[in-house]
Amino acid sequence: MDHAHSAVIATRLVRIPIGHEFLYGDLTVPAAAIGIVVFAHGSGSSRHSPRNQRVARALQHRGLATLLIDLLTEHEAELDEVTTEYRFDIALLAQRLVAIVTWLSRQKETAALPVGLFGASTGAGAALVAAAEVTDVAAVVSRGGRPDLAGAALADVRAPTLLIVGGRDAQVIEMNREAMAQMQAPVSLELVPGATHLFEEPGALDRVAAMAADWFERHMTR
Questions:
Q1: Class for domain 35-220, per CATH?
Q2: pTM for the complete prediction?
């Protein structure tokens, strides 16, 4: 491995204060990054999600910094494993994303970078609510997302939004089409042929990563 490549994947653990507790995340900032993408994971998932880690690596190689972060504190995550009470609390998750975007704007290495949000499953609903509240979100990408969970906030989103859905994920395609109809922001729906909800088919996730990287690249250049 050469030095340039190793610099791209140098990741550090960050702690973002939320009240008296912390959210833990893995921050990767390539040299001369063009923007930073915050990942909002789906229900019951965390920053260790192999799917999101794979997408993050692809974005890093395209010059995008990434923050894979747990939107629940350790205590909340333990409770949620038993009760599932937090994973569908879109308002709480969106609030956390807003706090994370604010935190990034105050860190020396990320303050000048445009911010994008990448939401998976229920995380996409939270990402869109956050984008409706924070006007300086540059772009949003949803993977197999539930944008319908953003409800009335959809009409207030200004950030260009890309909705990526598996071509065989019929129910979610319909939810995404209905959400699109309520959005004023530039929005595009891309189907990955032959893919189901988790994009487990060969090559499907790579296609998602390439589409996401293209979208962020296009909307993050200032």
A1: alpha beta
A2: 0.93
